[in-house]
C-alpha cells in the first residue's frame, strides 16, 4: 500500500509487485493539520486494508513532503503541525502494522519515474517537482540520493540571481516564485495591474493558492494569464538549466501539478530558456520531458521502496 501525502492532497492506492495499481483515490488534506491530518491518514489506510480483505499486505509506505528521520519522525513544512512528528510510531500504534516505510517525496518521485515513468532505464535523472512546494528527486548512478541529512533536492531554496526578491517564503526563494500558491498570487496581481476585469472575475472563482483553477481560467480564454504562465515557464527553464549543468542527467522530468500543467502548455518556453543557459554538452545529452504518471509518480516510488524493503 502506498500513500502520498502532499501539501494540499493525499493520494493513496494498493500496488502489486508487478506495478498494477488499484483502489486509487485522491482527497484534500485536512487543513487543520496536526493530529487531524494524521487521523485522516489512518482512516485512509484502514479503508484500503478493508478493501484488501484476505489478500496479503507487504507493508505500508508513506511519502512525506519534507524530511524523514531514521526513527520515523517527519518534518513537513507545508502541513500545519507536522514538525518532527513520529508518524511511523503513530501508524504502528493505531493500526498494529509492523512494516511501515516513510520516505521523503523527492526520493519517492524519482524512484517512481525510474520504475514506471520517464526515467525508466536511466542511471542519472532528475524529477523537478513543482506543486504546493518545490523540490527535486535525484537519481545518480542508478541510486536515489538523500544527502547527509535527508534534505538533498531542496531546490525551493535556490536563488535565481541578484534580481531575486529579498523577501522569501518560509520555504525558500524559488518556491516564492514558482509554486501553486505563488502562481495564483502572481496571476491575480498581474490582472489587477493591467485592470483586466474578466481575468479578476475568473480568479475570484478560485480558492487562494488553487493553481488548477488558474489553468482552467487560461484554458477558458483568459489570455492575460498566459503572460504569467510564460514567465513561470521561463523560470522553470532556468532551474532545469542549472540542474543540467550541475548534475549532467540523461533526463529531467517535470512533475507535480504545476510542473505537469506548465510543461503541457509551455514546454517550448522551458526548453528554449534552458537551451540558452545550460552547459551545452550536458544539454545535448539530456532529454527534458513531462511526467506521464502525474500523482502516480510518488505512489509508484513509495510502493517500490516498500516492495524492496519488505517484499523478500
Description:
It is globular, with a radius of gyration of 19 Å. The strands form three sheets. The chain has a five-stranded mixed beta sheet, with helices on both faces. It is built from eleven helices and 13 strands. The chain has helices at 34-52, 87-95, 105-116, 173-177, 180-193, 197-204, 211-219, 224-247, 256-277, 280-284, 296-310, and strands spanning 2-5, 9-15, 21-28, 60-64, 67-68, 73-75, 83-86, 100-104, 125-130, 134-140, 143-144, 251-255, 287-290. The protein folds into two domains: 2-108 and 296-310, 2-Layer Sandwich (Nucleotidyltransferase, domain 5), CATH 3.30.420.40; 122-290, Nucleotidyltransferase, domain 5 (2-Layer Sandwich), CATH 3.30.420. Helix 3 crosses helix 11 and helix 5 packs antiparallel against helix 6 (197-204). By secondary structure, it is α/β, with parallel strands linked by helices. Strand 9 and strand 10 (134-140) form a beta hairpin. Helix content is 46%, strand content 20%.
CATH architecture of the largest domain: 2-Layer Sandwich
User: What is the rounded distance between the termini?
Assistant: 16 Å
Count of alpha and pi helical runs: 11
Q: Rounded to an integer, what's the Rg over CA atoms?
A: 19 Å
Structural class: alpha/beta
Strand portion: 15-25%
Q: Any idea what the CATH superfamily of the largest domain is called?
A: ATPase, nucleotide binding domain
